[in-house]
């Protein structure tokens, strides 16, 4: 692994190893030159392939003949910013550095810089860190209205960071906080392709054929109220997991009683969402072209707001988050036609008369039944009297 150049008398050593460290002496005539060769070997845990929130560990081996120099070790991330180790241990000529928890954006080429004043050492060692994860790792809240269409997507970073290792994943839906999740689809990714498999037949959703690369995507063509919940996209690599969640909140409006509003009647408009809202969001009923008196807001963390109306008009229910209107639904309160009012009045009067009629009929039937009972009683008494009278005549 070495050779001496005949012209310059330089000694070249390839494929350096820790055992190559030591003092080298060059003698040429009466001249003697001594050189101390320091050899560093840097290794990184998990071969530099991480998931978010994992902690990389650097091990720097330093082999040199005594005396050992005092080394100053500094680590720089892919943005050339200094990274302070969480802990640093030294055992003889081995330095162990534990860094901070990683994020997906930490992927790139890092640098370990080694410095010493005596003997003078100024060496930089580059190494790659790849963090497999999502472009949107934090919880995302998405709003939809009943019967609308919504698409949920997770953008993976494996192509961006040139991740060549295979990994798998799945998409789950958890409708309630403590409920068990059920699987919607699973997928596997290799260097050549990305493949998804639909797992649920009861839950109505689609896997779009055309979607951006490195993206997991599902489409709900017609949103139902029970489609809400936590959609969890999970990546798995070498028995380790990471996930990114999208919370879907569904809104609907209704009226009680439903149907046209008759004169003098009152109707309650109901606007509700499928999950409790965060503190920075609320629901608001507002009458179109109305006044401030026609506005009703939900209280903090409430999932429903009601407003009572007694006249026709168009009402909007808005879901507002941080003063930003996210979604909106309208409800049109219509006044019943005149014939419906007359019909309702007639039905009311007719119903009253029918009740009175039934009451009178009941009284008549009761009186008739009482008279028949009395008549039957008198006839029975007469028959008893005749029998007793005949018996007396025969005895005479």
From TrEMBL:
Query: In this protein, which residues make up the domain named Ig-like?
Result: 246-328
Which InterPro entries does this chain map to? CD4-extracel, Ig-like_dom, Ig-like_dom_sf, Ig-like_fold, Tcell_CD4_Cterm
Q: Please verify whether the record's keywords include Transmembrane.
A: yes
Alphabetically list the UniProt keywords: Membrane, Transmembrane, Transmembrane helix
Q: Which residues cross the membrane?
A: 342-369
> Which domain of life, per UniProt?
Eukaryota
> Which PANTHER family does this chain map to?
T-CELL SURFACE GLYCOPROTEIN CD4 (PTHR11422:SF0)
Question: What protein does this entry describe?
Answer: T-cell surface glycoprotein CD4
Q: Which organism is it from?
A: Calypte anna
């Amino acid at each position: 692994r070495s050779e001496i150049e005949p012209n310059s008398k330089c000694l070249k050593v390839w494929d350096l190893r820790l055992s190559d460290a030591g003092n080298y002496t060059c003698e040429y005539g009466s001249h003697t030159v001594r050189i101390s060769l320091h050899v560093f070997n840097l290794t990184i845990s998990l071969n530099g392939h991480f998931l978010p929130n994992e902690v990389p560990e650097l091990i720097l081996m330093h082999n040199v003949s005594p005396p050992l120099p005092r080394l100053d070790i500094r680590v720089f991330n892919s943005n050339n910013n200094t990274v302070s180790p969480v802990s640093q241990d030294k055992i003889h000529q081995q330095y162990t550095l534990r860094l901070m928890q990683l994020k997906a954006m930490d992927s790139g080429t890092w640098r370990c810089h080694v410095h010493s004043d005596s003997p003078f050492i100024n060496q930089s060692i580059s190494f790659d860190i790849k963090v497999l994860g999502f472009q949107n790792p934090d919880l995302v809240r998405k709003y939809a209205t009943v019967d609308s269409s919504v698409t949920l997507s997770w953008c993976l970073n494996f192509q961006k960071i040139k991740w060549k290792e295979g990994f798998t994943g799945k998409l789950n839906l958890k409708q309630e906080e403590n409920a068990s999740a059920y699987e919607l689809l699973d997928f596997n990714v290799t260097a050549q392709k990305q493949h998804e498999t639909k797992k649920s037949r009861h839950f109505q959703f689609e896997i779009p054929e055309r979607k951006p690369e490195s993206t997991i995507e599902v489409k709900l063509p017609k949103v139902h109220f029970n489609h809400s919940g936590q959609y969890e996209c999970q990546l798995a690599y070498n028995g380790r997991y990471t996930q990114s969640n999208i919370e879907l909140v569904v809104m609907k409006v209704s009226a009680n009683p439903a149907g046209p509003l008759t004169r003098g009647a009152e109707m309650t408009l109901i606007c509700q969402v499928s999950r409790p809202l965060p503190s920075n969001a609320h629901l608001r009923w507002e009458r179109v072209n109305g006044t401030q008196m026609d506005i009703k807001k939900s209280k903090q963390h409430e999932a429903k707001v009601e407003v009572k109306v007694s006249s026709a008009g168009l009402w909007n229910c808005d879901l507002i988050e941080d003063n930003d209107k996210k979604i909106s639904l309208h409800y049109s309160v219509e006044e019943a036609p005149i014939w419906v009012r007359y019909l309702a009045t007639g039905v009311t009067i007719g119903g009253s008369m029918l009740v009175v009629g039934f009451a009178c009929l009941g009284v008549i039937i009761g009186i008739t039944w009482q008279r028949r009972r009395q008549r039957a009683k008198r006839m029975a008494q007469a028959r008893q009297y005749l029998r007793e009278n005949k018996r007396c005549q025969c005895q005479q």
